[in-house]
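Thread: Newbie trying to understand structure tokens

Hi all, I'm a second-year student working on a class project, and my supervisor (Dr. K.) asked me to get a predicted structure for one chain before our next meeting. I've only ever worked with sequences, so writing a 3D structure as a token string is new to me. If someone could post the tokens and maybe explain what I'm looking at, I'd be very grateful. Here's the chain:
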Amino acid sequence: MSSPSTSHETLLRVEDLRVEFHTDDGLVTAVRGVDWELRAGETLGVVGESGSGKSVTALALMGLIPQPPGKIVSGRAMYRGQDLLKMPSRALSDIRGNRIAMIFQDPMTALNPFLTVEDQLTEVTRRHMGLSAREATAHAIDMLEKVGIPSASKRVFEYPHQFSGGMRQRVMIAMALSCKPDILIADEPTTALDVTIQAQILELMKELQEQEGTAILMITHDLGVIANIAHRVQVMYAGRVVEKATVDELFANPRHPYTLGLLESAPRVDKLEAELRPIPGQPPDLSKLPGGCSFRPRCPFSIADCSRIDPPLVKSNSDGSYACLVNIDEAPRHDATSQISEELS
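---
Reply by user tm_fold:
Sure, no problem. This is what the structure looks like when written as tokens:
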């Protein structure tokens, strides 16, 4: 996807974000020194396996990390000159749902089962936009129609349990878009939707972006969604960013072995003859991270230094960066499955 044509103003800059959780199994470092920026009118894609820190990063920015057991150890999240991480809860609630909105990945728990869809949609617009009850209801119906819910004027008065999982997700999307936010954080927003509705929702997000200059943080495991909507991508593994690149560069020339693994394990229409190669093993236990590079036990390019050096992000030949000691275009490839078996034995 080409670069956005709107303003390049940086709306949100995240610096050295670190989040920990105290659990019965020990201290879990869920996010480890994440840095990135989000510009007006662009979509920043965040990809990685479950447990990589994608959702925790978003929840930290929204002030939704339960404390305890969670704790934001360090970092800044600068939005229009204000640090979201240090903002009083009342001030943050004025921004949350209004200027920065979030689509949660689980509509089953994100919607209140005791309130009608109208109650939940109109609460946002009456509080943040000052609409009357009648205006807020009309706006809610309009938003439900935009996200493809049939008979919206009737269904708006129903309860969440009367909607399918996909319909509930569309209600969540309508709620997040209601106030035309500066920043939309979308956490797996199309997971519960079929392919046709997924395409409609992505087009709706693009339309909002073009009309309002909305910046989108798209969190997903679906590389097809990333290819469709993102301008830039950050790949996360074991709580940290291991690669940053434009979407075109990421698909054409991945620099980190984990990024390459994600691409090789997913079917691509431009490489139908390519053999699918699943990434062996499982993501590491974040309470017992291995020494050196966290991806080393699963990496087909690892070398001896990988066991003692946790590589920092370094500039690639393009505008991106990656955290790896090897050049995967030149390094020999070995069987990572055998390496995992040896370490477990």
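A couple of things are worth pointing out once you decode it. The CA atoms of residues 103 and 173 lie 6 Å apart. The longest helix spans residues 195-212. Feel free to ask follow-ups in this thread.
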